[in-house]
């Protein structure tokens, strides 16, 4: 029996203000395909559940996410681990476990062009057995429920993929997987070869049916991989898949070695936001994923706010920074889709520079005052995907925008 959830109902039908059924499949959006924007559950449903846990992934599915996102790291003994940061104290109880106290260390590495230094417990320094001692906590915001703290363990990539297969079967609807490979240079240190982390992720995703290998991989280096039996799909179809990485060389590697499209994440590389920069990105990525403020306040203002410098001559030679209200069009013009991040729960600040007094560089001077304005602006710009928190709220706004488009179409027909 198919279970009716918000996901299965909202994905097919909405009501317009006149009480008639509006079908989102019959309304053309400004996305590359003309279909409605796809919602990516950021770390599952972290607005209500501790992120990257079984409960977070299940709630994301029930609320109607189209994709459910994991972040990947690699344990000391080579297991793919789901955790947002490379370190563990921010969302687990690792600091309270005496047996692990000696594993705290200080590391410095480069991530997305910026140096990072952290003193903490790191995923790559703990074995899977040690990581399984940990329990996940919710971020300490007053508007997020804290009563699930300590109930869930840290998951492996395999366990995440099993969960997505399960919700696909049990809810009768496919859900996309979109793993992000965090800091590949850091996780590949001390491994048997430089792309060990990436290849391990590729082989795992292949086993679960979401990708095929198209480039040379030395599988003998991964003979220790042992997978659990797959639950039969029983007529269900797996959803789509995509890779993510902030490391552009890793993104290119994933693109050349698998059949799965690649999301190029970025918020710190100035060349990326120029016409010739996008030409380069289009040689390896099918989806572009910038921080959302690049579509509102713009690249130049953002980089200045982050004290990120650039060579003006180089940027001029690459065609100059693309204006924020032109960026979506330029990405689509190159055949790529786009997926900005992150659209928070409405209890949380939206975090645009223009809201702190920085002048937007778009011709319209747009600066969102609330979540509805924010989402409608990005829907109008033609976002193909959006990383969201509080998926149910995002889904309601998507329904309202569908109705808005339906009303526009009806008005055009009647005039």
Supply the CATH superfamily name. Phosphatidylinositol (PI) phosphodiesterase
Helix/strand-derived class? alpha/beta
Low-confidence stretches: 11-21
Please indicate the count of domains: 1
CATH architecture: Alpha-Beta Barrel
Secondary structure tally: strands: 17
Strand content: 5-15%
* Main beta sheet strand tally, sense and closure: 4 strands, parallel
Briefly, what CATH class? Alpha Beta
The total of helices stands at: 13
Strand order of the largest sheet: 11-4-3-17
Overall body shape: globular
What value does the Rg take, in angstroms? 21 Å
Arithmetic mean pLDDT? 93
Distance between the termini: 46 Å
Question: Characteristics of this structure?
Answer:
415 residues; alpha/beta; TIM Barrel; 4-stranded parallel β-sheet; 17 strands; globular
Give an overview of the whole structure.
It is a single chain. With 415 residues, this protein is of the alpha/beta class. It has a single domain, classed as TIM Barrel. The chain contains 13 helices and 17 strands. It has a four-stranded parallel β-sheet with strand order 11-4-3-17, with helices on one face. Helix 8 links the parallel strand 14 and strand 15. Helix 12 crosses helix 13. It is globular and about 70 Å long. About 3% of the residues have low confidence.
């Amino acid at each position: 029996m198919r279970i009716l959830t918000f996901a299965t109902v909202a994905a097919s039908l909405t009501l317009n203000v006149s009480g008639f059924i509006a079908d989102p499949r019959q309304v053309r959006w400004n996305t590359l395909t003309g279909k409605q924007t796809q919602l990516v559950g950021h770390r599952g449903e972290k607005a209500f559940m501790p992120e990257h846990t079984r409960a977070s992934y299940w709630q994301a599915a029930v609320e109607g996410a189209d994709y459910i996102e994991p972040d990947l790291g690699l344990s000391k003994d080579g297991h793919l681990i789901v955790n947002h940061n490379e370190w563990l104290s921010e969302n687990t109880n690792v600091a309270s476990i005496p047996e692990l106290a000696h594993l705290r260390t200080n590391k410095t590495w480069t991530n997305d062009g910026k140096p990072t230094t952290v003193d903490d417990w790191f995923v790559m320094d703990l074995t899977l057995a040690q990581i399984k001692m940990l329990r996940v906590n919710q971020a300490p915001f007053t508007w997020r429920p804290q009563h699930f703290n300590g109930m869930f363990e840290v998951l492996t990539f395999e366990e995440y993929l099993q969960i997505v297969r399960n919700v696909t079967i049990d809810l009768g609807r496919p859900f996309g997987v979109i793993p992000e490979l965090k800091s590949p240079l850091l996780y590949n240190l001390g491994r048997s070869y430089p792309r060990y982390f990436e290849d391990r992720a590729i082989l795992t995703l292949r086993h679960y049916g979401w990708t095929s290998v198209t480039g040379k991989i030395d599988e003998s280096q991964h003979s220790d991989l042992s997978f659990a039996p797959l639950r039969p799909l029983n007529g269900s179809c797996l959803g789509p898949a995509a890779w993510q990485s902030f490391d552009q060389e890793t993104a290119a590697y994933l693109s050349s070695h698998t059949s799965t499209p690649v999301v190029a994440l970025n918020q710190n590389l100035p060349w990326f936001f120029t016409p010739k920069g996008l030409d380069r990105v289009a040689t390896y990525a099918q989806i572009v994923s910038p921080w959302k403020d690049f579509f509102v306040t713009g690249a130049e203002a953002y980089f200045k706010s982050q004290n990120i410098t650039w060579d003006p001559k180089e940027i001029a030679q690459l065609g100059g920074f693309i204006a924020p209200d032109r960026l979506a069009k330029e990405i689509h013009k190159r055949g790529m889709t786009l997926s900005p991040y992150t659209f928070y729960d409405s209890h949380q600040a939206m975090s645009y520079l223009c809201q702190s007094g920085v002048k937007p560089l778009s011709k319209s001077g747009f600066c969102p005052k609330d979540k509805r304005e924010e989402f409608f602006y990005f829907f109008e710009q033609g976002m193909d995907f959006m990383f969201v928190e509080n998926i149910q709220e995002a889904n309601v706004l998507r329904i309202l925008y569908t109705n808005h488009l339906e009303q526009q179409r009806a008005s055009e027909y009647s005039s």
